[in-house]
Fold:
Amino acid sequence: MFGIVVHGGAGTILREKMTSELEAEYRGKLAEALRAGFAVLDSGGEALDAVEAAVLVFEDCPLFNAGRGACFTAEGTHELDASVMDGRDRGAGAVAGVRHVRNPILLARRVMQASGHVMLAGEGAEQFAVHEGLELVEPGYFSTERRWQQLEAARAAEEEKTTLSEDATEKKFGTVGAVALDRAGNLAAGTSTGGMTNKRFGRIGDSPVIAAGTWADNATCAVSCTGHGEYFIRAAAAYDVAARMRYGGALLGDAAHAVVHDNLLPMGGRGGLVALDREGNYAMPFNSAGMYRGALMVGREMQVAIFPGE
Structure:
């Protein structure tokens, strides 16, 4: 058994507010990411390579809050975060607050494999990217009109000291990620994000935090999270799925559901996650109105979904 599961963010994603054209674009990119990752696995490649291939599709697509299409900070800039984890030895790498790295997921992997560290941030992370020969871009590369309008809405609400609508509030968050199982039975996970719209003071969410936004361990599962990062950090959400399996004997689906609905939700943590174990079982629970998600396992039909009940 081998395959890949992905997500493109969770939030107030309502069918009645999405055009058929935009829905088709989202579904098409989810399918493209799944095919990119699955092709790696199908040819005998490693889970980590498959995760990277899938996340790169999202980072290069302006529809998602990661890489190109990342949201704006309060200063009108971009600060991107990413992390990866290898289930074979729990090797991990992460970057936070980078501003010029075209594909943060590539830098996170280099941190894991070539730096001797787990997390690098800001200018130091970018210096390491230069050292490793990764592609840098001008900040304007990440910008889109849609994200700018979201920043303007957040600024206006702040100035008026009003509360953003549920729709606008949850659009402040967004993340992409993937988990994969290769032919050798190894698991891997990766997560990438543009952060939170209108964020200040170098805020960092769960995406680059190992055990909060990303986890992979061959003994249990691989997990990538998306949602309101502060709560996912407080809940150690990604690791909690694995812990429930390892110490409580829970099945993957039960563990993932409990984290999202019993642990995060009572605190106010909105979002979801994708998880995969080495038997090929996967879960995609969320407690928000929707989550861009999909799975492609060998011998099974591709699944791509956005709304509840799919």
Notes: DSSP finds nine helices and twelve strands in the chain. The chain has one domain: 3-305. Residues 44 and 183 are 7 Å apart (CA to CA). The mean pLDDT is 94.
